[in-house]
Description:
globular
Amino acid sequence: MPEDTPPRVLVVAAHPDDIDFGSGATVAFLVATGWQVSYCLVTDGDAGGFDASVARDRIPVIRRAEQTEAARVLGVEDLHWLRYPDGRVAVDLALRRDLSRVIRTVRPDRVICQNPQRNWASVYGSHPDHMAAGEATLCAVYPDARNPFAYPELAAEGLEAHAVPEVWVVGGPDPDVVLDLTDYFDLKVEALRAHVSQETDRDGRLVPMLREWMGGTAAAGGLAEGRYAEAYRRIDTR
């Protein structure tokens, strides 16, 4: 890579708002430190929302707009939408191919993805779409995207194979990367508030909840009281 080319990271998630909940402060930090950040959203979040009076065919449009605004808040403009149906994401060859296409397009130095393992302590930490998106992303990183003979249709599109050097997994067991992101807490909150259709800040509970989550992550990572962190399990994929 030329010395003047910024490092690139691709963040993959199942739904709009997943990135902002799991990695919003990390994204803000990476942008601020010169990384070029791209998003890949597997679904449009078409099964989300809370207002039954809103036509269901409007939800994908609304949620794409909300995620685009949330990304703008954090400094991200490159969004890739796969438009799989919300609630029905499965680890299949079609999804692996489509994720490989995005990896070969973005050519990232790092991929951030969701945890593919079930969390037995919390059903909320084990959304099937999240696990499927995480597993399919890892399959796309290795072996699919780096294998020049996998998915010949991608080569026909002019997309050369690309080997991702590392993956950071959100919400996985035994995190070994803990980032002090206290300075980016407010940007994470602002990004999440863009997801109006999800009532993200219902009853004003968003900030206290994030302080508890990120404060607990910081404490578990050995950071000082009053600091806020996001954590990852790093996988060397070279």
